[in-house]
Amino acid sequence: MMYDVIIVGGGPAGATLARLLGRSRKVLLIERRDMQRISRNDFKKCCGGLVAPDAQRLLAELGLGIPGDVLDGPQLFAVRTMDLGHDLERYYQRHYINVNREKFDRWLISLVPSEVVIEDRSIFKEYVEFGKGVQVSYAKDGEERLATARLLVGADGASSRVRRQLAPDRKGPKKYIAIQEYFRQTEDQPYYGSIFNKDITDFYSWTIPKEGFLIVGSALDPDREPTAKFEQLKRKLQKEGFDLGKSLGRNSAYLNRPFETGQILTGKGKVVLIGEAAGWISPSSAEGLSYGFKSALNLSGAIDENIDRAAANYKRNSKSLYLNIKWKGIKSFLMYNDYTRKMIMKSGILSMGSIKEKLVETGII
Ligand SMILES: Cc1cc2nc3c(=O)[nH]c(=O)nc-3n(C[C@H](O)[C@H](O)[C@H](O)COP(=O)(O)OP(=O)(O)OC[C@H]3O[C@@H](n4cnc5c(N)ncnc54)[C@H](O)[C@@H]3O)c2cc1C
Asked: Is 355 within a domain?
């Protein structure tokens, strides 16, 4: 049987595309995780699990609201920005939805129509193009399988194997290794902490409270002793008053940071890429969920128009996403330039006050 579309990767981008196409097209979704159950030892996506306002808007456009059992407390309305090099600190209002990332992905998969064939516990290996389409080989529970389709979609994230085969020599976005470590939370931290310090990284580090745990994370240069830099970050945070006790676990993942739109690859011919596989992710904040949703929407529109011209139509539909990456690149320059960040933070523009010290003084908290 020939599918219309094979999607590799059931993360936010792949699951959304499968949901959008599932009723009108024959779709096969290949995903390496076990989507029926979450077991302790299985691979779990390393993620902060914060749904930012752009992603919230796209969920609304997709006709979705996040179910309660996917949420993790506390819900956060502020970013505490710390510039450790200049000893500056500000709070900014921002509304995040704090979710359990594994449950979030499984909820998105649960919305995929039953017509879609989901091959989970399956690892994509390679593809071969032939006259009418693409033949894909993958391994399910160790057993080799083949499938064919008119179009192959790589939605397999930052280290996309589909992308590596499609354009092995093409320069992609800059790669970071993101490390996250989990600690028991010992005090209220009702904010998303975002930490700038060029001794650690030219990107940023973060703290996120989640269901009684505190996540400490950082996006690090893989070639500049990332583990040592992460240890240095923890020491700096402890100096700033963070109570990091015993480590309860650590994970890591590659993260893309597109500095130019030329590093984004939407695909060609019968092979296209969406989500982080294409390079769609914010270079200023590493927010990737909205880009996964938006690129899936853009591609589903292109396929509806004409599946045989999907790659060209999808590229055309992505104009606003390209512009968005350009704008985030400018924002990134202002945020990560030592001088401009210092000036912005010193001026206090757009920041909000905190009455926390007063509440502590008066014993309310
Ligand atoms: C540490 C960290 C924290 C982050 N925090 C946030 C955040 O708080 N908010 C936010 O918006 N973004 C965040 N991001 C970015 C965000 O996680 C990604 O941009 C987003 O998940 C991209 O979605 P996607 O569907 O394109 O790819 P992914 O979510 O990576 O999904 C890819 C899927 O493909 C599957 N897959 C991969 N290879 C294969 C294969 N060979 N065969 C079969 N299946 C395969 C994977 O199992 C996975 O399910 C963070 C990223 C990192 C690394």
From this structure: no
